[in-house]
Amino acid sequence: MWWKSLARQIQERTADNNGVVAFGAGFGPSGLPHIGTLCEVLRVSIVKTAFEKISSKETRLFIVSDDLDALRKVPGTFPQPQRLQDCLGLPLCDIPDPFEQAGSLSAGINARLDQALMPYALDYQLIENSALYRSGYYNSTIKQFLSRMEAINQVVASRLGITRRKSYSMFMPVSRFSGRVIEHLVVRHVDLQRGEIVYQIPPDLLINRPGEEYSITSQEYYADEPIGEDITTSVLDGHCKLQWKADWAMRLIHRNIAFEMHGEDLTDSANTVRDICQVLDVRAPILMKYGLFTDIAGKKISKSKGNGFSLEQVSKYMPEGALQHFMFNNPYRTTRFHPQVSIKAYDDYRADHARMVEGDADNPVGYFHRPPTHGKRCSSYQRMLNIFTACHPGDIDAAYHYLLKHDKTRQDILADDAFTDVVQKAFTYFQERVAPRFQPRLLNERAESVLYRISEQFKQLSVHRRPVAREQITQVFDQVGVSSHSAAYRMLYACLFGDESGPRLDGYINRLGVQAFCMELESRIKQAVHYRESETMSVAQVNQVTTESSEAPRPIAMIEPPREAGRVLEAIDFEEVKARAAAFAQHLRSNSETIAESLSGFECYNVAVDEIERCVEFLKCLELNSPFFERRVHCVTSYLPLNQPIYATTCFGIIPSLLADSAWLRPPTAMHSHYKKLLESLQLERFFPNLNISFADKETFVSQTAAMSDVVIFTGTPENATKVRKSYLKRTLFILNGAGHNPLVVSADASIDTAIESALRVVLYNQGQDCAGPNSILVHRQVYGEFIRRLREELVKCEGYVGDYACKENIVGPNSDPDHTLKVVKMFKEYREHCTYGGEINPISGLIRPTVFERPLSLGGNYKEFFAPVFFVQPYAEDTELAGYFEHPLYAPNSMYVSLFGSSGYIDGLVASGKHDVDTVLNNTDLHVVEKGYNPYGGHGVAASCLYVNGVRIAKPTLPQRDIHEHLVAV
Question: Which residues form the signal peptide (predicted)?
Answer without folding.
Answer: none
